[in-house]
Amino acid sequence: MHTSTQERVIRPARNVLGSLRLPGDKSISHRYGMLAAFADGTSHFTNFSTGADCASTLACMEALGAKVGKLTDGSVEVTGVGGRVTPAKHPLDCGNSGSTMRMISGLLAPQEGSFTLVGDASLSRRPMERIRKPLAEMGARLTLTEGHAPVMIEGARLHAIDYTTPVPSAQVKTCVLLAGLQTEGTTTVRESVRTRDHSELALRAFGATVHRTSDAVSITGPQALHAIDAAVPGDISSAAFFLCAAALFPGSSLVLDSLGLNPTRATLLDVLTGLGARIAVLHLEEKHAELVGTVQVSAPAEGLGSAEISGALAAQLIDELPVLAAIAPYMRGGIRIRDAKELRVKESDRIALVAKNLRAMGAEVTEFEDGLDVPGGQSLHGAVIDSGGDHRIAMAFSVAGLRAEGETLIQGAESAAISFPEFFDLLDQVAER
Ligand code: S3P
Q: Which of 57, 130, 171 to mutate to test the pocket of ligand 1 (most atoms within 8 A of CB)?
């Protein structure tokens, strides 16, 4: 097969064996980087995400006056602006990162000055009305173009609100909390499904007081943030590709250490256990209220069973659904996914691309507006995979390719670097050929 830097050949594997430590969690790195850049003092982070998305966050915060240094040992040092940013001369480039654009908008809406946030073609197609609405309710002056980036902000004095997110979203929740941090009074965000709570935990780590109930988070502003030192836990959404790969091969054994196991992120472990995979947590500790542990996974001799994912489960697993769907043909009973319409407005339309690529590999699949049915007991053959420039699609089908007949060619393989530049090297390390 012809290859270029944009393409990657995946050869079938016989087994998945080994032990890995993964780069820092993308969600936590965004938050630590952003809060450190806003706080007073100098923060120091080890195992910070190596993904391009978090580099976008750091570059935006640098353009707003923070100082960012990459030390020779790979750690990252961030000196914050002490609660007041400097308006940037140029538009802030959020690249491919929805988290960067949505969360920084909340941070900037109460600041003095004008700001413009732009992104790449994919990010410019993604819905931004979901942040404009609550911020406008707080009195922010924020304009979009037909609901999309560029996001133009004229800093304004805001007032506290009590807001219920119409679609569960940790990015929207964070956006409102970051505005609330700087706004007099108590701002509350309510959500029907508890989304990842890294912002709440990170705000506390940086010294803020945050109140939580089962379905709401409140912050009373204004509050100042103070620098911290932290080790970022390994990214469980990156681990998902390796956990699923190991779950496919009877006789496999994979150990992942220093892995983030925050309960709002670890639902995949329950799903894999339900599918029959054997998962053991060998060690567990807490760092800045984030659970971190060592996980060992091995595949069931009889193969994976079946899974049904809908309701709150779909929201909690949203980033892991592409890889679960991509390996579903190899399960005995396959997978049924519903209530996952949000997948259509991620870095790509992930429902359409998963269906298209599974079909390219010879699988039968039914697409729904809010999900997919992928029957089990199917064998796949290698094919040309269209990643659509979406990192999670590129990685999900690399995992599917490990058990296919023949070689799989991943087009747009470089997109893996959005969250996980080391992905292909680590895959080669643990995939036995
Ligand atoms: C993220 C929240 C989720 C997730 C994304 C990262 C975050 O998005 O899909 O990859 O770090 O807060 P939504 O907030 O749009 O659900």
A: 171
**Whole-prediction pTM:** 0.98
Ligand 1 pocket test target in 32, 123, 169 with most atoms within 8 Å of CB: 169
Ligand 1 pocket member 132 (CB < 6 A)? no
Share of the chain above pLDDT 70, in %: 99
The token pair at 22 is 């993964």
Q: Ligand 1 mean position to 319 CA, how many Å?
A: 8
**176-212 confidence digits (pLDDT tens):** 999 999 999 999 999 999 999 999 999 999 999 999 9
Asked whether residue 2 is assigned to any structural domain, the reply reads no
381-384 contacts, C-beta under 8 A, 24 or more apart: 381/405, 381/406, 382/10, 382/12, 382/406, 382/407, 382/408, 382/409, 383/357, 383/408, 383/409, 384/360, 384/409, 384/411
Q: State the total domains in the chain.
A: 2
Q: Are strands 7-10 and 67-70 parallel, antiparallel or unpaired?
A: unpaired
Amino acid type, 30:
H
Residue 349 lies in a domain: yes
Q: End of a domain among 182, 199, 230?
A: 230
Give the pLDDT confidence of 324-333 residue by residue, as tens digits: 999 999 999 9
pLDDT given at position 6: 87
Last residue of a domain, one of 182, 197, 230: 230
Ligand 1: centre distance to CA 249 (Å): 30
- Same domain for 408 and 331, yes or no, is yes
- Residue 127 shares a structural domain with residue 241: no
Closest CA to 151 of 183, 109, 181: 109
Tell me the CA–centroid distance for residue 171 and ligand 1, in Å.
Answer: 5
5 pLDDT band, cuts 50/70/90, is low
Residues known to be catalytic: 319
Q: Does the Cβ of 122 fall within 6 Å of ligand 1?
A: no
How far does residue 20's CA lie from ligand 1's centre (Å)?
25
* Cis geometry, peptide bond prior to residue 222 (ω within 30 degrees of 0): yes
What ligand 1 atom has the least distance to the C-alpha of 237?
10
- Give the range of the structural domain holding residue 211, as residue numbers without chain letter: 26-230
Residue 308, pLDDT score: 98
